[in-house]
Amino acid sequence: MIRVLIAEDQALLLGALAALLRLEDDLEVVGQARNGQEALALCGTLKPDVVLTDIEMPLMTGLELAAALRDQGAATKVVIVTTFARSGYLRRAMAAGVRGYLLKDAPAETLAAAIRSVHEGGRAIAPELALESWSGGEDPLSERERQVLRLAGEGRSGAEIARQLHLSEGTVRNYLSEAISKLNAGNRVEAFRLARDAGWL
């Protein structure tokens, strides 16, 4: 049996994914998580073979979850299932050690086949995304610029960002300025939108 943990913050979709996978004779859903932090903790105790995760989740994104598992040297493999068909997300997912990347409108049999392929050491990338990733631009942002820009896009003030990331307000301004400049944006709002649409946040 392939042991699968599902991480998805939308309860209805979480239940639907679990129900679909339980129809497969060789897949066992061993746990469900509503955010990345919960999923990471469950991976430590349940040791699933594969984690099926969304990207955008509270507390820790699916990409951050994948990177944390990679950094821990965990044997668990990660498959992203998302609505975001953006080459920037795919590139970041690959850099985080993700083995599969599928869209949520993929047929159930495609999802099950992807889990099996990844479990056996292969990769499973939605064909339309694989093609797009070759034509997409490189992510110009550093990890710290990405963090600061993401928080700014959520409406946080410079002081709030500084407190959360343990930086000075001047350093936060510098990171924002760099991000705005790299994206050729007019302000932080436009920079956030451009980076989000490219899949870099």
List the helices and strands and how they pair.
Layout lengths: L1 E6 L3 H12 L4 E7 L2 H11 L3 E4 L8 H11 L4 E6 L4 H9 L4 E4 L4 H12 L4 E2 L1 H9 L7 H11 L4 H8 L3 H14 L5 H11 L3
Parallel strand pairs: 1-2, 1-3, 3-4, 4-5, 5-6
Descriptors for this entry?
Arc Repressor Mutant, subunit A; phosphoprotein; DNA binding; DNA-binding; elongated; CheY-like_superfamily; alpha/beta; six-stranded parallel β-sheet; 2 domains; 201 residues; Tscrpt_reg_LuxR_C; Rossmann fold
Question: How would you describe the overall organization of this protein?
Answer:
With 201 residues, this protein is of the alpha/beta class. The protein folds into two domains: 2-135, Response regulator (Rossmann fold, 3-Layer(aba) Sandwich); 143-198, Arc Repressor Mutant, subunit A (Orthogonal Bundle), CATH 1.10.10. Helix content is 54%, strand content 14%. The chain has helices at residues 11-22, 36-46, 62-72, 87-95, 108-119, 127-135, 143-153, 158-165, 169-182, 188-198; strands at 2-7, 27-33, 50-53, 77-82, 100-103, 124-125. Strands 2-1-3-4-5-6 form a six-stranded parallel β-sheet, sandwiched between helices. The longest helix is centred in the last third of the chain and has 14 residues, at 169-182.
